[in-house]
Amino acid sequence: MTLIYSLRFEEEALVTYTFIAQDKPKAAKEFLSQLKQRIEGLVDNPKICRQNDEGYRELIYKGYTVPYLLDGDNIIILGLFNQNSWVSDLPTI
Predict the structure, then answer these.
(1) Strands of 2-5's sheet in order across
(2) Helix H or strand E encompassing 71
(3) How many CB atoms lie within 10 A of CB 31?
(4) Which of 20, 45, 42, 15 is nearest to 31 (CA)?
(5) Per DSSP, what are the bridge partners of residue 77?
(6) Residue 88 gets which letter from DSSP?
(7) What are 47-86's pLDDT values in tens digits?
C-alpha cells in the first residue's frame, strides 16, 4: 500500500501545527510526528479504522480525525480536523 497525502491534508496539518505551536512549539512538533507515525501504520492494516456512512475511514488521534480513502493499493489521506465538521469535496462511495 502507498500513502498519498492530499494537499488539503497538508494545509490542515499546517494550520493545526501553527495553532498548537502558538503556546507549545515542542508539543506541536511531537503531535505531527506521532500523527504521521499513526498514519504510516495504516500501510500494514488499512482497514483498522472505522468506516463512516460516506465510505471513508477515519483515524482518530488525540481528538483529531484523519479521514482517508482506500483506492486499490493506495491510501489517500484526505484531511485533518478536530471539533469542526469536515466536508468532503469528493463523491460518496
Answers:
(1) 2-5, 74-77, 64-71, 57-61, 50-51
(2) strand 64-71
(3) 19
(4) 20
(5) 5, 68
(6) -
(7) 999 998 888 999 999 999 999 999 999 999 999 998 765 5
Confirm or reject CATH 3.30.2310.20 for domain 2-77, answering yes or no.
Answer: yes
What size, in residues, is the chain?
A: 93
| Beta strand pairing call for 74-77 and 2-5 | parallel
- The owner of cell 481528538 is 63
Reported pTM: 0.86
26-37 average pLDDT score: 97
Domain ranges within the chain, ordered by starting residue: 2-77
8 Å CB contact between 68 and 77:
yes
Residue 68 grid cell: 482517508
The Cβ of residue 29 has, within 10 Å, a number of other Cβ atoms equal to 13
